[in-house]
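[PROTEIN RECORD]
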Amino acid sequence: MDRNEYYMRMAIEEAKKAEEKQEVPIGCVIVLGDTVIARAHNLRETLQNPLAHAEILAVNEAAKRLKSWRLEDTEMFVTLEPCPMCAGSIVQSRIKRVVYGASDPKAGCAGTLMNLLQEERFNHRAEVVGGVLEEECGNLLTGFFKKLRDRKKAGEGQGNN
């Protein structure tokens, strides 16, 4: 198993924790060298906080652990392509490399809708690798939303979206 897959599997485990909480199953791991310094999963519904995306929570944890907002030599592994907010946090924290699983056709800002992570007008750009364990990451999401639709049809709906 290569490095990207190794750490993406950790991010997938985080995504599964989110799903257990009926959160959208997205997980994130931040690595410095060969050490995991932060891991997180979506908690938007749990915390009723629009900022509680896996990437934002992981960036916050990594900054606390390193006692610095500059995460310059770190790599992020995330199961879904970062949205505009998360891409902004990656640029602002100066993460060196981002590896994601599934592309996000509705909000992807690492190359699908736009590429904020490599925008030349910003003072920082991150290396981007997409499609790592893409099918597995995508299946987590499609399975989650299918179950959610089925529950809604059965009258058990919850406001996740």
Q: What stands out?
A: Helices lie at 3-20, 44-47, 54-66, 84-93, 134-153.
